[in-house]
Design goal:
- With 442 residues, the chain is of the alpha/beta class.
- The chain has helices spanning 5-24, 39-51, 102-108, 175-180, 182-195, 212-221, 238-243, 257-264, 279-286, 310-318, 325-331, 347-362, 379-387, 409-434, and strands at 60-66, 75-81, 90-100, 125-133, 145-149, 158-162, 166-168, 203-206, 228-232, 248-250, 269-274, 288-296, 334-337, 370-375, 394-398.
- Strands 3, 4, 5, 6, 7, 14 and 15 form a 7-stranded mixed beta sheet that branches.
- The longest helix has 26 residues, at 409-434.
- The protein is globular and about 90 Å long.
- It comes from Anguilla anguilla (European freshwater eel).
- Residues 12-36, 400-442 have a biased composition (Basic and acidic residues).
Length: 442
């Protein structure tokens, strides 16, 4: 091939390539019909739904949790996710009301050994409605109204417990009464009747007579004929406890209760219920008649402030009552100790007591006295009221959220005035900024 033919052949080859390229180009596709603007949102929603499929609503419930030992602020309101499921022998209860007990105050300070270490939900009792039952539960059904007694964990909107830890509520009993009855009345009943063998014409000393156990004990004493009740409480509560059945109210803050009792009953008492501990236990023992019974069930003297008081602890333990068997025999007296928290394995026995209590409730011989109700958000205030001994009766916690109260007209006017005062300086500043600057003389 000569050099002159090369340009011509090259041009020919390029022309052939161009023809091939043109013939291989795909045909232009017809454009889709344009959608109207009204269809755009629907298309966007459909695309979003395809990318984010709808999720099932997560079950949540409110719970009070002890985050650490200390003051009232250590019990915090939390929202937990996931619905608890009852296992064999268990039931799920929707809680309507919870009871606050002295043990819960001790637990907050780390002084109650039946409460596990934080974080933990306190609460030994509640009342509510069964929402689900596990397998092998035959004596409870969905919709049953029940009282619940458990070692801890009751301060929640829903709880899962063993079915035999629940007790059917009688018709007409409110949820607040149901939450107020178990701990206080079981404690008082077992002390007076199982240990104390209370009989007609006997005398009983009830310390903290305006508290939950104190009121329960007073009512149970009057279920027996001609029982005399001595009750200690601050003077402001005497009218209330006298109306509740206390025969001789004593102001422990201004009087020596031992001297006061001796003036009225020189021979002493048949039963002393001691929730105080320390030196008061010895005083209680000395107040007993021959064949008398001292029943100790607490150590309230160690609780003196928001946080653990080492001095009060040391003083209480230093004055702890002790006695040997020979001295008991010579004195013809008995000393008993009661702690409901350690009877959690004896629910057959506890159930028998609850049955007797509900019978007395039906007869109108006992009726819980509710001092006050507090929503979960107010748990700190509720604990303060009880710890400072301001309550007369049971303090109740409510799981339902606190509703915001509508503002009064006066409050609205006050807020409007405050807003106007705030706006006035802002308007003045704006005027200053908008005022044109005066021309300077040259």
């Amino acid at each position: 091939m000569s050099g002159e033919d090369a340009p011509a052949q090259q041009q020919k080859a390029e022309d052939q390539k161009q023809e091939t390229k043109t013939s291989e180009e795909p045909k232009a596709e017809s454009k889709p019909e344009s959608k109207s603007p009204a269809d755009a949102p629907a298309a966007s929603a459909a695309a979003a739904a395809a990318e984010n499929p709808p999720q099932e609503e997560v079950f949540t419930y409110r719970s009070l949790v002890l985050s650490g030992h200390g003051g009232y602020d250590k019990v915090k309101l939390q929202v937990k996710k996931g619905k608890p499921t009852p296992k064999n022998g268990e039931v799920l209860v929707r809680v309507m009301a919870c009871g606050l007990n002295f043990a819960d105050l001790l637990g907050r300070q780390g002084l109650y050994d039946r409460l596990p270490s934080p974080p933990v939900t306190p609460g030994m009792e509640c009342a509510g409605v069964i929402e689900a039952v596990g397998e092998e539960v035959t004596d409870r059904k969905v919709g049953d109204r029940v009282m619940v007694l458990n070692r801890f964990g009751m301060w929640q909107e829903v709880v899962v417990v063993l079915a035999n830890h629940t007790f059917l509520m009688p018709e007409g009993m409110s949820f607040q009464d149901g939450a107020a009855l178990p701990v206080n009345y079981i404690t008082a009943y077992m002390m007076l009747f199982d240990f104390g063998n209370l009989r007609p014409n006997q005398s009983v000393l009830v310390h903290m007579a305006a508290g939950g156990v104190g009121i329960a004990a007073t009512q149970l004493c009057h279920a027996v004929q001609d029982v005399t009740v001595f009750g200690t409480a601050s003077a402001s509560k005497h009218e209330a406890i006298s109306e509740g059945g206390v025969t001789h109210p004593i102001d422990y803050r201004t009087r020596d209760y031992v001297d006061e009792i001796r003036k009225i009953s020189p021979k002493g008492l048949d039963i002393v219920l001691d929730p105080l501990g320390g030196s008061d236990t010895q005083k209680g023992f000395n107040l007993l008649k021959p064949m008398g019974k001292l029943i100790t069930y607490g150590a309230a003297n160690i609780l003196t402030g928001q946080r653990k008081n080492i001095l009060a602890l040391a003083k209480t333990w230093y004055n702890q009552f002790s006695i040997n068997a020979l001295s008991l025999m010579h004195a013809n007296k008995s000393v008993c100790g009661f702690h409901l928290g350690y009877l959690d394995g004896e629910f057959e026995l506890v159930s028998q007591v609850v049955a007797k209590l509900l019978e007395l409730y039906g007869q109108g011989k006992i009726k819980p006295k509710v001092d006050s109700t507090w929503h979960f958000e107010q748990v700190g205030d509720a604990m303060r009221r009880m710890q400072e001994r301001n309550n007369i009766g049971k303090v109740i916690l409510l799981p339902e959220p606190k509703k915001e109260e509508p503002k009064k007209e006066e409050d609205k006017k006050e807020e409007d005035k405050k807003e106007e005062k705030k706006e006035e300086p802002e308007k003045e500043e704006t005027k200053k900024e908008e005022k044109p600057e005066e021309p300077k003389e040259e």
